[in-house]
Amino acid sequence: MTSDRRTAHRRSVFHIALALLITSTLTLHDARAHEREYRKGSLEIEHVYATATAPGQPNGAVFIKRLKNSGNASDRLVGGKSNAAKSVEVHQMVMDQNVMKMREIPGIELPARGRISMDRGSRDGYHLMLMNLTRPLVEGERFNMTLVFQQAGELEVEVEVLKPRGAHGHRH
Ligand SMILES: [Cu+2]
């Protein structure tokens, strides 16, 4: 190989590497583009999503990937509002004799300088429940919702509807 050819070879390898880097970065951005982040006071709310419902299914569940409270005082998620449902309840999943059930709870504590997850399948099983949906939740669609916090007040968010993951006992 002459030194000219070697340089050309190196340059093309570099181009391929760069192209791969750009492609993977774009894919990463694309996947995360829907994961919107919100701030209200000392709260940070990351990616609010719901799971698609089957026709006739009365209620839908809303999850939040991460809630962070960077303030010195605790706060509490106490409810929500949305045109997508008649009412919104704060729920927790609990195991009752090997059956997963949900119960309404008064709120979810956001400890001072702490973070919690209301992710689908998370340990505590927290979620918001859209009671009496006004229409089915369709995968890929979005709807607006207001989250209500005891201290920080109301925060309007966009909810992304995702594919349901394995039907597990949703009982009310
Ligand atoms: Cu529920």
What features would you describe in this structure?
With about 170 residues, the chain is α+β, with helices and mostly antiparallel strands. The protein is built from one helix and eleven strands, in the order H-E-E-E-E-E-E-E-E-E-E-E. Strands 1, 2, 3, 4, 5, 6, 7, 8, 9, 10 and 11 form an eleven-stranded mixed sheet that branches. The longest helix has 30 residues, at about 5-30. The radius of gyration is 22 Å and the shape is globular. The model is unreliable at about 25-30 (pLDDT under 50). It binds copper (II) ion.
What's the short story on this structure?
This protein is of the alpha+beta class and 172 residues long. The chain contains one helix and eleven strands.
- What structural class do you assign from the helix and strand content? alpha+beta
Radius of gyration: 22 Å
Binned, the helix content reads 10-25%
Q: Biggest sheet, open or closed, and with what strands and sense?
A: 11 strands, mixed
Q: Helices, strands, pairings?
A:
Layout: H1 3-32, E1 37-40, E2 43-51, E3 60-69, E4 75-81, E5 85-96, E6 99-104, E7 108-110, E8 114-118, E9 126-133, E10 142-149, E11 153-162
Parallel strand pairs: 2-11
Antiparallel strand pairs: 1-2, 2-3, 3-8, 3-9, 4-7, 4-10, 5-6, 5-9, 10-11
Bound molecules: copper (II) ion.
Tag the structure with descriptive keywords.
172 residues, alpha+beta, 11-stranded mixed β-sheet, 1 helix, 48% strand, globular, binds copper (II) ion
